[in-house]
Design brief:
Largest sheet: 9 strands, mixed
Number of strands: 21
Radius of gyration: 30 Å
Strand content: 15-25%
Low-confidence stretches: 489-494
Number of helices: 19
Mean pLDDT: 91
Distance between the termini: 42 Å
């Protein structure tokens, strides 16, 4: 592949304003070409791009196209920066009036040097907020697609779309469906701005000559006009790749805008490495409908503030995953100590969850056409969610890790929408770690709060996710939670129900429909705050589950807790896969005695503190 850096524009506005500036602050920049002005991090703008593409493994040659007016400046720059002087192309123009136009400059380099290869084109006078992005990712994504490639980014608040080339990109295929050069306000809702950063296949290079033949006016020979013609009129397949950063072509701005964007991008660079990123995700209780989330059913679940997983990400020289001293032990008091810990907690701590999330995150971004910066980090985690009692402890760690990665790499909700995020977390666990799980926990941990979820088959088949509706959390009743002090593996409770459901066994199929019906009735109870009705439905949920899973499968520990709660007149059900129970006691006076009874039975008992994201600051 060949890279061509374009620096042939005549920056009349910026150059004139630098010369006429009376403060004296910019006198040393008078007459300096745009691409050789200071960029982010103190280095010249062109220095950054040359460092980025100066890799023989990626590019066989790199060319620089400039004009006659500034040719000597770039020749001197080339000598000082080990850039091959013979690869500096002079387009012969000396003023804005006799300029060739950006597309003609590209064609000149291709024609004069007889280039016959795939080509990457970059504006060498473009400020880039991210000084660490991996250009190899761009090439890999380009090679994976049957067409050209246009780089874009999401406009920041305050940036107007009518000053940029705006693309509309298909989220599934990543094909650019429409290119609008500086569209009028209201013409498109897209905030995705194309920049002068493209990849062209060698077989598509003749389009450049054809475009120039049909567009003789120099004002039309811009890349914006070229892509409008190529995508909208010629229908050539062009794909989009997002860089989670910002770009500014300084040739199109004045001195105040140049200094503003330089300061803005520089401040981002200074802030990013020093601040650790800490995110939390919360345990959840399934309050209705579970376990039908894995069977095209409906559920209601709630995040609780009592228990959480917290992940901290810090930028570092190498990528490091730190083991948790309790959950990923590497030192033991004795062989007997190792035996007891391993027998109770197994061999699977949280470190594998961090690693699998990072692996899946990189894979997702590569497949979605999102180029990540070449930054490393250290991840560590902490959690107080009890293990093996079905409170979604594993998915909480994955969810919190994903939040950190998204913040670190500036991945937005548009890049990874909440419904897709829940699928992502589930895939980390099922595809990478072979954990048996459903979508409910991941959805409620992404949306947070009290969430109604519909996993009906037609929704899942049509779009890959269900209908997720946050419910009002004001004036909720007092829920309680109890869990076994020495639980077994909660995953065993699923038994053979899935296979029976897949086989179409009518008892199981009808049960899953009944779970969905109970969930709809519970939603109505929440909306009208009919808590006695909700308590009744919780009991019905447990009995329905008991009828298809059987007492043998539920296990003596879970049944003991259910029976104990019912002695005090409390509604009770399983909040997850087993090892804990969640209850709703309408007689608050019974709670103290019930708590004592659970504690004496070897269980841990607590009153639930709902986590409502709308009522408190959260990561």
């Amino acid at each position: 592949m060949i890279c061509i850096l374009l620096v042939a524009g005549h920056g009349t506005v910026l150059e004139t304003q630098i010369k006429s500036d009376v403060t004296g602050l910019y006198a040393h920049l008078s007459g300096v070409p745009k691409a050789l002005l200071p960029g982010v991090g103190g280095k010249k703008i062109l220095d950054f791009w040359w460092e980025t593409v100066n890799t023989r493994q990626l590019f066989s040659e790199v060319y620089l196209v400039t004009n006659a007016d500034k040719f000597k400046h770039y020749e001197r720059w080339a000598t000082a920066n080990d850039f091959p002087v013979e690869n500096v192309v002079n387009d012969g123009s000396t003023t804005l009036d006799d300029r060739l136009g950006a597309v003609a400059d590209l064609e000149l380099a291709i024609r004069s040097r007889q280039l016959q290869d795939d080509i990457m084109v970059i504006a060498g006078d473009m400020l880039c907020a991210d000084q660490n992005f991996d250009i190899a990712q761009v090439i890999r994504f380009f090679r994976s697609k049957p067409g050209e490639l246009a780089i874009y980014y999401e406009l920041e608040t305050g940036e107007k779309s009518n000053s940029r080339g705006i693309v509309e990109v298909c989220p599934d295929t990543h094909r650019v469906m429409l290119f609008l050069e500086k569209p009028q306000e209201g013409l498109t809702a897209s905030r995705l701005a194309s920049v002068v950063f493209y990849c062209l296949r060698k077989e598509s290079l003749p389009y450049i000559s054809e475009f120039l033949y049909n567009h003789s006016d120099v004002t039309d020979r811009t890349f914006g006009k070229f892509w409008e013609w190529l995508i909208n009129e010629e229908k050539v397949p062009v794909y989009g790749m997002k860089l989670p950063t910002g770009f500014q072509l300084i040739g199109q701005v004045g001195l105040s805008d140049y200094t503003k964007w330089l300061a803005h991008y520089s401040s981002k660079q200074q802030l990013s490495p020093s601040k650790p990123i800490t995110c939390r995700s919360y345990a959840r209780v399934g309050v209705m409908g579970n376990p039908s989330d894995g069977f095209n059913g409906k559920t209601i679940a709630m995040t609780i503030a009592n228990f959480w997983a917290e992940v901290t990400l810090m930028e570092s020289q190498t990528l490091v995953l730190l083991p948790h001293p309790l959950n990923d032990p590497t030192e033991f008091g004795s062989l007997q100590d190792l035996f007891r810990i391993s027998r109770k907690e197994g061999y699977l701590g949280g470190l594998r969850l961090l690693q699998a999330t990072c692996k899946k995150f990189y894979q997702f971004c590569s497949e979605q056409g999102i180029a990540l910066s070449k930054q490393n980090f250290t991840l560590k985690y902490d959690t107080n969610i009890p293990r093996q009692v079905g409170l979604a402890g594993s998915s909480a760690i994955v969810s919190a890790t994903l939040k950190c990665l998204m913040k670190f790499y500036n991945i937005t909700d548009n890049d990874l929408p909440k419904p897709i995020r829940a699928n992502f977390i589930l895939n980390v666990e099922t595809d990478e770690l072979f954990i048996t799980a459903g979508l409910q926990d991941r959805v409620v941990q992404v949306y947070e709060g009290l969430v109604y979820m519909d996993f009906s088959k037609h929704l899942m088949d049509e779009r890959g996710f269900g209908e997720y509706i946050p419910l009002d959390m004001t004036d909720l009743p007092l829920f309680w939670l109890a869990y076994l002090g020495d639980p077994s593996d909660s995953g065993r409770i699923h038994s053979n129900v899935r296979q029976r459901w897949l086989n179409g066994e009518s008892v199981v199929v009808e049960a899953m429909k009944s779970f969905a019906d109970l969930t709809d009735q519970s939603r109505a109870a929440y909306e009208c705050k009919d808590w006695p009705r909700l308590a009744q439905l919780m009991d019905e949920n447990f009995e329905l589950r008991r009828s298809i899973y059987t007492d043998d499968c539920l296990g003596p520990g879970n049944l003991k807790m259910v029976n104990l709660a019912r002695q005090f007149g409390s509604a009770v059900k399983l909040p997850g896969s087993g090892g804990a129970v969640v209850g709703l006691c309408m007689e608050h006076g019974q709670l103290v005695e019930m708590k004592k009874a659970f504690q004496e039975a070897g269980c841990v008992f607590c009153l639930i503190v709902p986590y409502d994201p709308s009522q408190q600051g959260h990561a």
